[in-house]
Amino acid sequence: MANVTSTAAEPERLQLLRVLGPAHIWALGVGIVLVGEYMGWNFSVGKGGMIAGLIACWVAGLLYTCVAMIDSEVTSTVAAAGGQYAQAKHIVGPLMAFNVGLFLVMAYTMLEAANAITVGFLLDTVAGLQGHTGLNQQPFIILAIMFLAWLNYRGVLATLTFNLVITAIAFLAIITLFISVQFGASNVPLDFSAITSDPLPYGWVGIVASLHFGLWYYLGIEGTCQAAEEVRSPARSLPYGTMAGIMTLLIAATMTWYVCSGLIPWEYLGQAGTPLFDAARVTGSTSLMILLFVGTTFATLASANGCINDASRAWFSMGRDRYLPSWFGAVHPVYRTPYRSIVFLVPIALIFALGAPLDQVVTFSILSGLLGYTFMTFNMVMFRNKWPLDTIKRGYVHPFHPLPTIVLLILCSTAYFAVFLGYGTQLSAMMCFYIVASLWFHFRRYQFVRRGDQFTMPWPKPVGY
Amino acid sequence: MAYKPPKQGLAGQIFDVVTLLVLTIGALYIPLYLGLAGAVKVPNPIANPTWEALGQNAAEQQQWAALGITDPAAANDIITARFDYSFSWSALIVMAVLVIGYFVMVVRLSDREYREVIEERFGDKKR
User: Fold this and answer.
1) Do B31 and A425 touch (CB under 8 A)?
2) Which positions fall inside the Amino acid permease/ SLC12A domain (chain A) (predicted)?
């Protein structure tokens, strides 16, 4: 419970509590992302077929392994709230940091909205199975977001401990389904005949297109470093929690593809709202259905919970640095949480959850994430160039540099093309948004920013400046 | 000498937040309202559909039944729907210019701001 009081330099400023360990970091990362196995990933099967869905799963896994490697090095060195936002501030500059902050807020708020939509859809499906059709989903969407925002408002330790428990249950549900099906618990056999009878319904372009939603398997794992200021030992906990998280997700993603592709016709799977729950339905086992209902509910709640945590930290950090009105940079006097940011983002999440289709919301979240991963590539190169390995102490040094950076850039470029195939308008609208927002920041908002305060790390002057 | 930012009043703070909100919501909803959002998956239903004609084997028929769809006509649209991946090269080039141009612009303007930050933070000190 260290560091709960103000610093000597700024006696009035409250700090976030340093109470989290590696398990919480794992729970934050996996908790946000595990919902990607419960919904959304299957649209990649719809965009390219069964094989394309599996290839997208592994290629996206490679992309996120690069992200985790790069992020672990930079985050273990720039351990500050806001994660990649703080990295951009110290390595690239304020405008890039503002953009990265927006990437994070948009990606997580959209993901939160997608989770709430899924909760509503799942309850509607279950109500339909019980003979109660036409359930009004909106109260459940509102309730889910409001409850989790309240939990976040009350404190980070309780929030992430809650996440740890429900994430573990959701993960165990996937493993249980996988093992049960392997041991014959399903009334309907696994069938992978579509791999040979209809291997690539869209040809090779389908494989590229499917990468769009393949990202959804892992989107948000980089959120682990949002809690950098609340971790007891950032240099150890952040790389350990992040890498453990990506390994967990790779295993869960492959098992999910296997079970769902074997139990659900790919044409249905490609447009399903809750694929793992649907797979449990196909088995005919009531206990598996209940388990996967609980798993889906917990995964969506854990994800939304983590998203509120991360989006509010990014918004809070920008407010604290005056990239946004400083009113948002306040810490609650009792709970030590960024309460104004948490409350402010609630209606935004609701606007998207109540008014936009799931695939649109998912696409906007993916696009913001993708822009963030693109930033990581040149951020990593600039980090090594401005502070070579022997100039500052790093908590973790990732191997094979610059190979992960090059691979990440190639995969990001491919993913842009994948999104363009079918969702080009959204991509263009998103880019226009970020361009206008950047000009607004540079020519208007930046005047309120204290220059020297943007560099707080105890590092030497960067090389070349 | 350190840069002293002007103090922003309440009205200015509200204006800035509203500006960002309008931009954010507009980015998602304008394509939706204009009907330009989302990939259209077009069904190509076949006449007199049977499970066999729809390419579904015995195991897949069982799976459809377990999902609550026993009539092949009800699955006709789902099974036959396909995305259209044809695209215009000019649209692709516009997208590439937007993405690359955006990052170039942000990095260049950031660098200008970053030099001010480093200048103020380090001054003439040699660390």
Assistant:
1) yes
2) 35-427
Q: Are A106 and A315 in contact (CB under 8 A)?
A: no
- Mean pLDDT, chain A, rounded, equals 88
Written as one letter, the residue type at A385 is N
Q: Residues A305, A320: contact at Cβ < 8 Å? A: no
Task: Find out whether the peptide bond into A201 is cis, omega within 30 degrees of 0.
Answer: no
Rounded to whole angstroms, the Cα distance separating A351 from A344 reads 12
- pLDDT at position A4 over 80: no
3-state secondary structure of B83: strand
H or E, element range at B42: strand B41-42
State the nearest Cα–Cα gap between A172 and chain B, in angstroms: 24
Query: Is A388 part of the contact surface with chain B (CB cutoff 8 Å)?
Result: no
Q: Where are the domains of chain B?
A: 9-38, 39-86, 88-127
pTM of the predicted protein model:
0.87
At residue A350, does pLDDT exceed 90? yes
Q: Check residue A306 and give its pLDDT.
A: 83
- Would you tell me how many other CB atoms lie within 10 Å of the CB of residue A104? 29
Give domain status of residue A460, yes or no.
Answer: no
CATH number of domain containing A324: 1.20.1740.10
pLDDT value at residue A7: 37
Asked if the model's pLDDT at residue A359 lies above 50, the reply is: yes
* CB contact burial B102-118 (16+ within 10 A = b; e otherwise): bbebbbebbeebbebbb
Q: What average pLDDT does the segment B68-85 reach?
A: 93
Cα A257 from Cα A420, distance rounded (Å): 24
Give the span between the Cα atoms of A225 and A222, in whole angstroms: 6
What is the spatial distance between Cα A217 and Cα A174, in angstroms, rounded to a whole number? 14
Nearest to B92 among A375, A420, A425 (CB): A420
> Which residue from B41, B78, B106 is facing A95, i.e. has the nearest CB?
B106
The string of DSSP codes covering A17-82 is -B-B-HHHHHHHHHHHHTHHHHTTTTHHHHHH-HHHHHHHHHHHHHHHHHHHHHHHHHHHHS--TT
Q: How many domains does chain A have?
A: 1
pLDDT at A13 over 70: no
Q: Does residue A2 surpass a pLDDT of 70?
A: no
Contact B6 A324 (CB under 8 A): no
CA distance A297 to B87: 38
Residues of B in contact with A264 (CB under 8 A): 63, 67
> What's the complex ipTM?
0.86
CB contact under 8 A, B106 and A96: yes
Residue B79, helix vs strand vs coil: helix
